[in-house]
Design a protein that fits this description.
By secondary structure, this protein is an alpha/beta fold. Helix content is 73%, strand content 8%.
Length: 367
């Protein structure tokens, strides 16, 4: 096959294994050569010598098209040897060849990781289903519920997190009020800072900031604890002794966090609004009495319950991801740290995704 329009890029494959490249391989002269490249017949396991002595001009567009030609031949199992290219053309082609190689490596990594990701997602769904069955069975037989581990997890995930959640919620309320103060002052709408702080804290910021803190604080602890037990074969020993790991390790954490996180959200609501109240008093001259009076009128009960509902779902996500990554830990101490990191990243990511989905759903339902 030979392509040789006047002054256009051309190549000849009539005498394989010799590939003769000629003409001007520039953007304005490529014409229909791409279609000709796609129509190349299959060749197998040849040592092809690509002769570029006839190439008159080569820009980056032409180099990309030329490399696509060479890559197509290579994917058919042939080896390519370049010869006869001018030094500047060879250097330009090498740059494009390196780019092709990097893209191929990225695609290869994606192809390898995609099945692993899909398998992990399937395993997570199976894990959630198994935990749900254990939860239903335990609720049907309350005597099986281990209350002491639940109370311990409430203390660890709830009571011990009160200071950090309160401080951050307070500062967040201060920041929201402070950032909105200048804009509201320009329009004489000082009192509407109450609406902004009340709705944003109760509906969005309080449950989200509490969930992110708990994901980094308690979710990582769940993964580290179960991961360490998995590495030291304590979980296998529990199964041998007839103790169900799900009932002993996962269920108390799930119930404990499902109780703790909504309560922490209420605490964050209070501190966030209090921080906004102080800032509104200092920056906008909104008195405490006016603030509270407006807050009662501006914030509906559904706004408050939406935040609590989100917190309950976030608690489920954090517990599931933390325990799931813990059970997946194999090997040594390095893998414990790796799975702990994965649990934190995945928990925060899924919490934010869930929050976005809630926003879309509530917008559709006009809640």
């Amino acid at each position: 096959m030979k392509i040789a329009p006047k002054n256009a890029a051309a190549f000849s494959m009539n005498a394989l294994p010799n590939l003769m490249l000629s003409g001007s391989w520039v953007a304005t002269a490529l014409h229909d050569i791409v279609e000709k490249i796609n129509a190349i017949p299959t060749t197998n396991k040849l040592n092809i010598i690509a002769d570029g002595s006839g190439v008159e001009a080569l820009d980056m567009s032409g180099a990309w098209v030329m490399q696509s030609l060479l890559s197509r031949l290579q994917t058919q199992g042939n080896s390519i040897t370049l010869t006869g290219f001018k030094p500047e053309f060879a250097a330009r082609l090498k740059v494009v060849t390196d780019e092709f190689s990097s893209h191929a490596n990225v695609e290869s990594n994606v192809d390898k990781k995609l099945p692993t990701t899909l398998k992990e997602a399937n395993d997570l769904l199976s894990f959630v289903g198994e935990v749900s069955l254990v939860l239903v069975a335990s609720l049907a037989h309350p005597s099986r519920i281990r209350w002491r581990p639940i109370l311990f997890n409430i203390k660890e995930a709830g009571l011990n997190a009160i200071p950090i959640v309160g401080i951050l919620a307070f500062l967040l309320g201060v920041v929201v009020a402070y950032q909105s103060a200048d804009q509201l002052r320009h329009y004489g709408a000082n009192i509407f800072v109450v609406d902004l702080i009340g709705i944003s804290m109760l509906r969005e910021f309080a449950p989200l900031i509490a969930a992110i803190i708990i994901a980094g604080r308690s979710g990582s602890a769940y993964a580290a604890q179960i991961g360490t037990m998995s590495v030291t074969e304590e979980i296998d020993a529990m199964r041998i002794l007839g103790i169900a790991p799900m009932e002993m390790l996962v269920l108390p954490k799930l119930i404990g966090l499902a109780i703790s996180l909504p309560l922490l959200t209420v605490w964050a609501d209070m501190l966030g609004i209090f921080g906004g109240m102080l800032t509104a008093r200092a920056q906008l001259d909104v008195s405490f009495v006016d603030f509270v009076s407006r807050l009662v009128k501006a914030v509906e009960m559904t706004t408050y319950t939406v935040g609590l509902g989100k917190a309950f779902v976030f608690a489920f996500i954090i517990t599931m991801i933390g325990c799931f990554q813990g059970f997946r830990t194999v090997g040594g101490a390095d893998n414990v740290g790796r799975q702990t990191t994965r649990s934190v990243v995945q928990s925060i990511f899924l919490v934010i995704v869930a929050d976005a989905l809630f926003s879309i759903l509530f917008s559709i339902l006009e809640i």
